[in-house]
Structure formats: C-alpha cells, structure tokens
Amino acid sequence: MTSGGDAQGMNAAVRAIVRAGIHAGVEVFAVQEGWQGAIEGGEQIVQLNWSDVSGILPKGGTMIGTARSPEFRTREGQLTAVENLIERGIDRLIVIGGDGSLSGSRELCLAWPGLVQELVAAGRLTPEAAAAHPRVAIVGLVGSIDNDMVGTDMTIGTDSALHRITDAIDAISSTAESHRRTFIVEVMGRRCGYLALMSAIAGGADYTFLPESPPRDGWEDRMVDVLGRGRAAGRRDSVIVVAEGAADRDGEPITAERVQQVLLDRTGEEARITILGHVQRGGTPSAYDRWMATACGVEAVHQVLDAGETDEPMLVGMRRDHVVSVPLLQAVEDTHRVADYIAEGDFDAAIEARGVGFTTMVDIYRVLSEATPTVTAVAPARRVAIMHAGALAPGMNQLARVAVRSGLDRGFEMVAVQGGVPGLVEGALREVGWSDVEGMANTGGADFGTRRYVPTEAELYQMARSLEDHRIDALLVMGGFHAYATVDLMERERKRYTAFSIPIAVLPASIDNNLPGWPMSVGSDTALNTVVDAIDMVRMSASASKRAFVVETMGRGCGFLPLMGAIAGGAEKAYLPETGISLEQLTADVAALVDSFESGRSFYLTVMGEDASEHYTGEVIARLFEAEGRGLYSVRQAVIGHMQQGGVPSPFDRINATRLAYLAIANLDGQLASGTSNIVAASSSAEGMFGPWRVVTEDMDWEAQRPLDEWWMRLRPVFAQLSRRPGQE
Ligand SMILES: Nc1ncnc2c1ncn2[C@@H]1O[C@H](COP(=O)(O)OP(=O)(O)OP(=O)(O)O)[C@@H](O)[C@H]1O
Ligand SMILES: O=P(O)(O)OC[C@H]1O[C@](O)(CO)[C@@H](O)[C@@H]1O
Ligand SMILES: [Mg+2]
C-alpha cells in the first residue's frame, strides 16, 4: 500500500516488493488508494504480477494510487479495513507512506486483535477466519518528500524533491541576478525544515526560515542586515528560502508574504515570491530515490515474511549506506516528540531530535549564509591552502566555496592552488577572498582547476618549496585517486621535506566513487543521475522496436556507476570490473537474452563499466548479442562518456561537499590550535568525520584503484532478484 502524499520513488519500492515477493514464492497484492482502498475493498485489492510492475521505475507518483483517508481514523473505518484484508487472507502488510500513514499502521497493529474480536461478535467474520489471522505483521517504508521521520536518514522522495527545488532556485538565481532582485521561495515540508535547510545550502541561498529553529526577536533587522551586506559585498541577487511551516517564537507563521512585507517596509524593495508547491512532489525519481527505495523494498519483503506472531512492526530505512530496520513504534514516537518540542518552544531539542546530520547542517548553514566572515584575520594569520587533484568531479566548486568561506570565518588566510598538483609544483598559488567564491555553489567544473597527475620525485621537492614560499600552514586536498596517491607520496616523504609536516586533510571527489573511508565521493551522485537519465532516454528511444542496448558507463576499475546505474535504471544485466566478464557467463547471458525476446520482450538493457573487461568490450558484446539474435531484435551500443563528469552538481553532491569541506577545515583548525601535524582523510567511522591517513587508506587497493570493501557490492543480490524472474538464469 502507498498512503499519504505521493512521493517520487514509491513506484520503485512497489516494483521491488512485488518482485522480491514473487522470488520468495508468495502472492503479492496491492491495496490501492491507501487506507481508503482497504476500507473500500473489492477491486481496490488486486494481485500484482512480475510484468505488472515493468516500466514503472522512471515514473513519479505511485501506480497503485494513494490517498489521505479520514475514515481510517475511525473505529468503523478500521473494522471494515480489517474485514476486507482478512477476506483476502491478507495479514502481512507493507505500508509505504509518511509519518501519518505509519502512525495509522501502528494504531491498526495495536488494535487488530480487538477489531477481529469485534468483527466476530458482529457476525462479520467467522471464528475460523479470525483464528487464522489473529495478528497483522506490518513493515513500514517511509515514502514522503518531507524527510520528517526519525529512524531513517532519508525518506523516499526527499532527494527527488530536492532536485526539483534546487533546479528552481538555480533558475530563479539567474533572473534575480539579472535584475538585482530578491526572491522569496516557499518550499514544502509541513512541520519539517529538512527540504528548506538543504535546498538553501544546495542553492547557496542567503537566508532561510525553518520550523525547528524559529528566529529570535529582531530577526527582521538581522535579515535586512545580512542581505544588505551581501549586496554591498557584490552579490547581485538575494534568495530567501521559507519552509511552509516556518513560524516565529510566538508561533506566528512566517509566510513568504510576511517576509516580503518586512523587506518592503525596511528597504523599499518589492521582493518577488515563488511558491513551488506540488511541483516538488512530481517528476521522475532521482537515482538515489530509485536505488534506495529498491533496496529498502526488498528488505521489507524479508522482514514482513520473517515476522513472527509476537514481533512488533518494523520500519525499514537508511542509516548512511546501510539498509536498517528499527521498531516502528519507537520511530513514530520519536517523530511525534519533535512536534511536541516545537509546540513547547524547546527548539534546541527539536533540532537535536532530528539527528546529528541536521544539527551539523544548521550550524554550517549559519556560517555559510553570512555575507562576510564573522571574524577578521589578525596578522600573522594562519595560511591554509586548498587544492583539487585528479579528474574533474561535479561539486568541486562547492567544495572550494565552502572551504574558503569556512576558513576565512575561522580567521585564516585562504590560498587556492591553481590547476591541481602541477600548479603546486609550479607555485601557482593565490590568495582568495569571500567574494571570489560567490556563485560557486551550483556550478559544475572546478574554477581553480584540477589535473589527473601524480608528482615525480623531483616535483615533490618543488611542491615542498611552493608550500614554504607561500608560508602554508595547513593543506586541504580534494579529489580522486590521484589526490590520494599524491598525499600518500607526501606522507612517505615527510622526513625528507619538512614542508609536508603540516596538518593535511584529504577528502574524496570523484565520479568513480572509488575511494576509501567515505561512502559517496563528491560527484558520484551527479554522475549516477546522468547515467540514469541516459538510460531513461535509451529506453524511450527503443520503445517502438525490438531492441537490446549495451550502455557503457565510466568508473574505471570501480563498478559503482554500472551497478547502481543498472539498479536505478532497471537493467537486466550489469558487468562490473570487480567481477570481470567470462566467456561462460556471456554464453549464458546471450541465451537468456534470446529467450526473453522469444517470449515477447521488446527491450533488454545491459549496463557495463568501461573497464569491466579488457577483451569483451561493449562493442564485442553488442556484436555477439546481434549475431545470436538472428534478426529477432537489433542491438545498439551507447557510451555515455564525459557527460558523466560534466553537469550541474546534484543536490546530494552539493550537500555532501558542504559537509566534507566544512569538517575538513574544522579538523585543520583543531590541529593548528593544538599544534599537531597529522594527515587525515574523510572517514565516516571517525569522530569528526576525519581519521588518520594510514587507518583510512588501509582499505585502499592501490593496484586496482578502489577500496577493498565496497558497500554497494552488497546490493548485487537485490539487483539479481529484480532483474530476473525466478528460474531464469
Ligand atoms: N493516528 C492515526 N490513526 C489512524 N490513521 C492515521 C493516523 N494518522 C494518519 N493516519 C492515516 O494516514 C493517512 C495519511 O496521513 P498524512 O496525511 O499525515 O500523510 P503522511 O502519511 O504523513 O504522508 P505525507 O506527510 O508525506 O503526505 C491519513 O489520511 C489517515 O488515513
Ligand atoms: O498534497 P496536499 O494534500 O495538498 O498536501 C501537501 C502536503 O503534503 C506534503 O507534500 C507531503 O507531506 C507536504 O510537504 C505538504 O504540506
Ligand atoms: Mg507526513
């Protein structure tokens, strides 16, 4: 069942549940139109088969319909729903919905035995039927753009909604800049400020109002001051993001109109208002919402089938890169507690209850949205250099922007290395100020330059000289494999070159997602979205004919892009560099391919990594497929290519970059203050998110240029279940 407001990615969950259910050997039914459908019964409860969920992955909304059902809140509504479910022999239920729908599920779970008794007493249910279904097993998946559920880091739909919002803010910024205007953008989220906060960060907005953190009295003057200073520092536009549930400390709503009036009264400027509304809930799901909903859907099936008589209902969600399950009751109660804190005016507790990620981002936003540094560098200020290294990754500009601004805000002089490692060798360093990084929040590319280059022995000496000449006290390196390889050399040569004995922080930025310590390197989410967009287009291009496609992604020795692209794009087959390609496997795959066209398929999609095999290249595989089809279908190859490195960074990459760069500078600051000179790298398991170099890089396979432990390889069984019917090899 899907219930509550629809959310992009609900279809991915439905598809995964149906197919994983079929693999588990059970019959899967859809309760259409949410709880309302359970009350209506009859044709609202329908069985779904394998092919019923074909082709729904790229579609927004939910194919089984959703609703908000006031009737379900009543005893009679719940009685009828239980009656209808038991009539179909259904006592295991996966509900995909928001906090409301899951609260309702929990209520039903608690009330079920009583409801069953009442139905028997009223003669609406036979004692035998009641005895066969004494309890209901419920598993919840959170489908809501609001991301307002405690117990999961992300809810299905939130990432897609952020895509819609950041696209809109990017578009508004350009017209605002042209007219030197202020725009007030209202975003959804009910009583949760997640969408507003993250879109303000991703869009580089100047000011934001969140329900969890109502502004202190006098906010009107502060807002006008911040905007005014921004303009004085050269900004041509101002963007204010208002969450629909924002209010002041007296609980008086802060609406877009109210903000507009404040600006008119105090500055005479007539700001424009854009209310994004339901656009945020529409459109194709992002890559994240597709793979995340898919992975959670498969897990939900296992949970609901394994649930024993007395087991409590569970919620399946995400904790970092892990699919996790937590007791639904606890999650619902914790979620309601946030609302209570807000109602009681305990805003610190409200923010804290949203989780550490939210709290950190609120702090970071406060620094970044300032128009100028809050402190002035006092001579002799510490000098911190930043450098990109390796291939270009979308989000590098955001990294540079956040590093520069948070460094300046801590009183450092910030120095940018121009052109990556060769720039450091040549001594191409320049000081950068607050406004030098203006507008870099949402652009692709790397304005300070980057190169795929590892220094030679002699160049290490020159690098050390550059660091000394420019009196660099600490260094932040942001990039891919070459960044890590360069710093590894520097670490080994620290005895020889004392200039390297400064605090150094390294963070991952690469579309390949092939670096240890951090689950998603900056740029990899953007590239994955590009892959998925390309697959969607390829699929459409083939819709009028019988065709097999072989799509090739980048990623070098790392299979992240091909596997995740295959899961999110709904492919039939994926070839990864980790596992290679054998003739034996190809033979089996060709047989499966021919068989599927013979049994009526009209499209077959294979996704492969560029380095999956030295010999069986995309072209070879495409020819092989063509030859064996004997005219039954045609085969085309699509190499996605450098589009994957280009592109405007996705909201996730902008947010990920913001957190990483901020925490890296915080680490360097801490080291400079305490007098240590450690080399650290981003590490999701370390305190402060940066851990010792040697420890983090223990997980690096330098030869294969990828981590030894790749978390997403755990999703291979998920992919295997969804891409092939049981019995198909
Ligand atoms: N306490 C409750 N008891 C019984 N049913 C409930 C309860 N709360 C919500 N529901 C049911 O869940 C439905 C959806 O709830 P709601 O409108 O809050 O949306 P949601 O699931 O939170 O999704 P979203 O917020 O993303 O739109 C309600 O219309 C109602 O049928
Ligand atoms: O679609 P409706 O019923 O107008 O509800 C809008 C609400 O639903 C959501 O989109 C999802 O909960 C909220 O952000 C918004 O407040
Ligand atoms: Mg809700």
UniProtKB/TrEMBL annotation:
GO terms for molecular function: 6-phosphofructokinase activity; AMP binding; ATP binding; fructose-6-phosphate binding; identical protein binding; metal ion binding; monosaccharide binding. It comes from Tessaracoccus defluvii. Belongs to the phosphofructokinase type A (PFKA) family. Its EC number is 2.7.1.11. Coiled coil: none annotated. GO terms for biological process: canonical glycolysis; fructose 1,6-bisphosphate metabolic process; fructose 6-phosphate metabolic process. PANTHER family: ATP-DEPENDENT 6-PHOSPHOFRUCTOKINASE, PHOSPHOFRUCTOKINASE. Its cofactor is Mg(2+). Keywords: Allosteric enzyme, ATP-binding, Cytoplasm, Glycolysis, Kinase, Magnesium, Metal-binding, Nucleotide-binding, Transferase. It catalyses: beta-D-fructose 6-phosphate + ATP = beta-D-fructose 1,6-bisphosphate + ADP + H(+). Pathway: Carbohydrate degradation; glycolysis; D-glyceraldehyde 3-phosphate and glycerone phosphate from D-glucose: step 3/4. This is 6-phosphofructokinase. Residues 1-303, 383-665 form the Phosphofructokinase domain. The lineage of its organism: Bacteria, Bacillati, Actinomycetota, Actinomycetes, Propionibacteriales. Gene3D superfamilies: 3.40.50.450, Phosphofructokinase domain (3.40.50.460).
